[in-house]
Amino acid sequence: MPDHAPGQKQKLIKPKLSMPGRKPRLSMKDVLLWSKGEPPKPGPRRIGIHTSTAGGVQIAAERAYRLGANTLQIFSSSPRQWKPYLLAKTQCNEMRRLRDKYEISPLAIHSSYLVNLASATPEFHRKSVEAFRGELQRGISLCAEYLVLHPGSFRGRSREEGLELVARSIAEAARGLELEKSSLKVLIENTAGAEFSLGGSFDQVAQLLEYLRPVCPVGACIDTCHTHVSGYDIVSEAGWHKTMQQLDDTVGLKNVCVWHCNDAKDPCGSKRDRHEHIGKGTIGLEPFRRLLNDPRTEHAAFIAETPINEPQDDLKNVAMLKSLVEVQSKKRRA
User: Distance between CA 73 and CA 145 in Å, rounded?
Assistant: First the structure.
């Protein structure tokens, strides 16, 4: 529960430096700089957004709360650098405290964009395995529920060899971490279907889940933009039902723990991964309405990865997703 009375202005928190000499790069796009008054109330679905960790990973939970989100996704380290951030125990403890205070769950971590567990280059593959092990360790320390992974590129191998190598690489990265004793589950994300990419179809995601089940706790993350641009019809009503049936027949809807809710700048089948604000792209609002009100997806978290071009764009995208929810939670129906 919030620690201020209704109607009072929220006390804005100045982010503390997470490491000596590191200054958080903040702009007016940051909710901590423009948030005033009571934050929006969360709704019956778990809806959130990929959230900045500027100033310290734990402050992402405060940002999510100010946006009216009750779930969130973060990077636990720089997504474009091999050298990881060091997470202090105090940061992890504060993240857990704020999540408990604001009832924010689940926490998803998106793995680094550099990681390619199917790489045919030995040195790059070694770095990828080491980096992914770091992602697993930070996920455990933060008590995160999910670690989202793009399967990678199989260039230089066959697709089947690439899928098998990803499974072996995750097993190597997870060795000795006892993931089954933690809350962390690895989620394989579907991709936009570019040449040599793994996970561009539901069948490939399902195949990788089968390889990984003996290795670690595993599930799927389905991105609406990736689904659309990889060639699945989720716009027409008939296409939506067909696509959801295909997903259920392969991956299994019960195994989709997170939905990345992103509209798309490009048309169906374009293979171009460019996200757009909810309802402003080639997908439109109705597919998101169907997704958020489908009883088969009620267990999942819905997390936007939409652009923040102007201050409050993140607030507007979270609010738009919440506005599409027509069903009531079981708790409210009781």
Answer: 10
What letter represents residue 25's amino acid?
R
Nearest to 222 by CA among 167, 320, 279, 146: 146
pLDDT at 26: 63
Cα-to-chain-centroid distance, residue 126: 25
Q: What is the pLDDT of residues 216-259, one digit of tens each?
A: 999 999 999 999 999 999 999 999 999 999 999 999 999 999 99
Q: Is 11 within a domain? A: no
Q: Is residue 172 part of a domain?
A: yes
Residue 138 maps to which CATH number? 3.20.20.150
In the chain, the number of structural domains is 1
Domain extent for 99: 31-328
Could you tell me if residue 270 is inside a domain?
A: yes
Q: 84-102: string of b/e by CB count within 10 Å (b at 16+)?
A: bbebeeebbebbbebbeeb
Minimal CA–CA distance to 135: which of 165, 104, 114?
114
Pick the residue with more confidence: 182 or 331?
182
The alpha carbon dihedral of 136, 199, 189, 123 has a sign of positive
How far is the C-alpha of 82 from the C-alpha of 23, rounded, in Å? 20
24 domain residue, yes or no: no
Question: Cα–Cα distance between 303 and 316 in angstroms, integer?
Answer: 13
Residue 171 backbone dihedrals phi, psi, to 5 degrees: -60, -40
- The phi and psi torsions of 295 (rounded to 5 degrees) equal -60, -20
Please tell me the distance from the alpha carbon of residue 77 to that of residue 83, in angstroms, as a whole number.
8
